[in-house]
Protein 1
Amino acid sequence: MHVITAASSNHFRPLLNLLASYEHHMPASKSQISVYDLGLSDTERASLMAGGWNVIPFSFNNRPLHLNPHLPEGEGSCAWKPVLVWEATRYRPVESALWLDAGCLLHGSLAKIETVLKEVPVYTPKIGYSIERWGHPETLDWLDPVGDLRKLPCHYGGVCGFSPDGWYLLEKLKNVCLDQSIIRPPGWAKTKHRSDQIVLSILLHRYARVSGYRVIDEKLDVSVLNDWRTAEQARKKFLSDDLSFEQG
């Protein structure tokens, strides 16, 4: 399974914590993870490469402006993530792919997720609110005009796996995220809307309904939103089996 993550300098510390948890729980699998450089310094990039990590540049030049995470505070969305993952899978199309945010930590090997992706085309854990909670009205109307999916659970885009059978959904997700009128309609605000997660969740539930596959959405040996942790705090966390979220 191809594991994909990314960071710029403002997420370098959590990235190191993720990689430390990966190396601890999967010491023989370094070649299976790709670290995309969204804007690391020369020193940061060199330190990763010296540690044996596969670092790949990802430029936002010649891409739609709304994909750029480096826009002023509150204006940048996470719409770039499906675009990056889709491009990464083009290099290894026969493998399952797992996206992990830099703020994730592994609490074991990824064997459970890998097994799940042999059973279903997409894996992503649910989070504690419905799709409509963080959805912009225009995004919801475009993707769910009937309105029968909005009460279903929203899923966390920071942990998202696709088997080759799920490439269709990934490409659909990518294409929607490239359309600013859907992902960032007028009135969109990062403090009120999570468009990338909303799009993922609606497409996932619709795909499951049409195809009849069972959505597997429990947490599997990965905790999220650990960006605030020091190296010592992260190590204590990933050596435990506590997958709960704590606010730093």
Note: The mean pLDDT is 93.
Protein 2
Amino acid sequence: MSLLDKILPPDIIYLRLLKNKIIVRDVRTGREIEKKRDVPFSNDRLIIAEFEPIEELFRTAINEVLNKKNKYISKSINMVIQVMDETITEMTSIEKRTYRDLGEHCGARMVWLEPSQNILTDDFIINNFDTQFRIHH
């Protein structure tokens, strides 16, 4: 863990991705928002069919939930992304890469993909994934 991470621990974002909707929560504060777009980013086959609209939506939602005012100074972000679609039983390597790239493009230093359909609690994320983020430096 870096000195900066000890002084300013990374924010942890929990992002649930649904068809044409995202729910973003700051795990440390519990602040949560839900966002949709007029332009769909999903289709019948894919949760993310259009990369640019969802990337813009991710960025906007993350900035809002973290209440970022200063765009020049920010803490690092670790992110848990969970695809919430009961028709998806397993993510392909292409989907995993897409979700990971999307998180990294939106400022996440570490991205954890959660395969279950169960909504995670903040305590569960902090107690389980926070150590995972530290291990993967």
Note: The first strand starts at residue 11 and ends at 18.
